[in-house]
Design goal:
Number of domains: 3
CATH superfamily of the largest domain: Probable tRNA modification gtpase trme, domain 1
CATH architecture of the largest domain: 2-Layer Sandwich
Strand order of the largest sheet: 11-12-13-10-4-14
Strand content: 25-35%
Number of helices: 9
Largest sheet: 6 strands, mixed
Shape: globular
Oligomer: single chain
Radius of gyration: 20 Å
Mean pLDDT: 94
């Protein structure tokens, strides 16, 4: 769920960030650790965050997560609390997914949609603490807008607070992630999308069985003041497990291999959950949520375009905004996300394609890669097997 960019876009951001003064960007509570490690840094939603680290870069970090364990600082992700009598019921009336499907101690992927258009303001994770307490983790650049919309609609007694800088967020992802948490006496046995509030060295930390990589993993939410110490402990304890610090470059290649959408690319105010094939995160039977009328109408009529997977049949690598064409040269749509997949060692991507063209999985299409046609096959993601459970 989270602000992430394809590697090609990351390099563009690296150049662009040089024009910004450092005071323009927020910094993670783990910022000094990244600089000590020599990380390449760039702007993510107004936060200066690590792209990759010396000693192998994106591909080695990606491989560490698939084969062992990687530790990410994703403290740029938003944090907001919704508290007060009936807070969960209010959130359920606003966001797409159905909070009544889960219980206290569970988390849920959901979306904040525009009431009129059904477009996606943001996708986020909701942590249900109880009927009167919901914790939200939006994307970095969208936190203020999500909090603003919720605060404007909140009933008397329900308070919405942006807690963006009060917490860190560390993601521990990979097949050895449970072993690593065990070494720090942190809980690792929870079911997927469940969370526990525990104590580590005297401070509270939330441990949730979630992630954005397709591997077994956890997201830890410590207080900002203790995030750096927890980061150090994770890397120290995981050294012989193959643990590596991982930047947002590998986070993007990992999520793309899973076909996970990225807000601003595969979801946006102009791309609805129906078009993005994210209807599984919509509580269609709920009587109320923002954008319901528009989304129900689109679902019943059938969307004009749908998000599809692409995998390269030659050496081409799809990138955002590249045109997708049929075998006879007709425009079908455009790539929304694309990258080189380190696990498969081919180019992969997601693209919004016109439904009227009747494109089916297995069909061959052409992508305009910098003026040259590249052969691609339409497929259903994920591009690699999921191991989240």
């Amino acid at each position: 769920m989270l602000t992430r960019l394809p590697v090609n876009s990351l390099r563009t951001r690296l150049r662009a960030v040089a024009s910004l003064t450092m005071t323009d960007l927020r910094r993670s509570p783990v910022d000094d650790r990244h600089r000590a490690l020599g990380a390449k840094m760039a702007d993510f939603g107004g936060w200066e965050m690590p792209i990759e680290y010396p000693g192998g870069g994106v591909i080695k970090e990606h491989t560490a997560v698939r084969a062992a364990v990687g530790v990410f600082d994703v403290s740029h992700l938003g944090k907001a609390t919704v508290r007060g009598p009936g807070a969960a019921a209010f959130v359920n009336q606003a966001l797409t997914n159905d909070l009544d499907r889960i219980s206290a101690g569970q988390a849920q992927y959901t979306m904040c949609c525009d009431e009129a258009s059904g477009g996606v303001v943001d996708d986020l994770i909701a942590y249900l603490h109880g009927a009167d307490d919901v914790f939200l983790v939006p994307n970095a650049a969208n936190t203020a807008e999500v909090a603003r919309r919720l605060a404007a609609a909140a009933p008397d007694g329900v308070q919405v607070h942006d807690r963006h800088e009060d917490y860190g967020v560390l993601a521990v992802q990979g097949p050895r992630s449970a072993d690593l948490l065990g070494r720090l006496d942190l809980p690792s046995s929870g079911e997927y999308m469940s969370f526990t509030v525990t104590s580590w060295r005297g401070d509270d930390v939330v441990v949730c069985r979630t992630g954005y990589t397709g591997e077994h993993g956890y997201e830890l939410l410590p207080a900002a003041a203790s995030a750096g110490e927890l980061w150090d402990a994770l890397l120290d304890a995981g050294r012989d497990l193959g643990a590596r610090p991982c930047g947002l470059g590998s986070r993007d290649t990992l999520r793309t291999e899973m076909g996970y959408p990225l807000h601003g690319h595969d979801l946006s105010l102009s791309i609805t959950p129906v078009q993005a094939r994210s209807g599984w995160a919509v509580g269609w039977k709920k009587p109320e949520f923002w954008g319901r009328a528009a989304l129900v109408a689109e679902k019943e009529a059938g969307p004009a375009r749908l998000l599809r997977g692409l995998e390269s049949l030659d050496r081409g690598i799809p990138r955002p905004h590249m045109t997708v064409r049929s075998a006879d040269g007709a425009d079908l749509g455009e790539v929304t996300s694309g990258t080189f997949a380190p696990t498969r060692r081919i180019g992969i991507g997601l693209a919004l394609l016109a439904t009227a063209a009747g494109v089916a999985d297995g069909d061959e299409v052409s992508v305009d890669v910098r003026g040259r046609p590249s052969r691609m096959r339409v497929v259903k993601p994920p591009f690699v097997p999921s191991n989240v459970r």
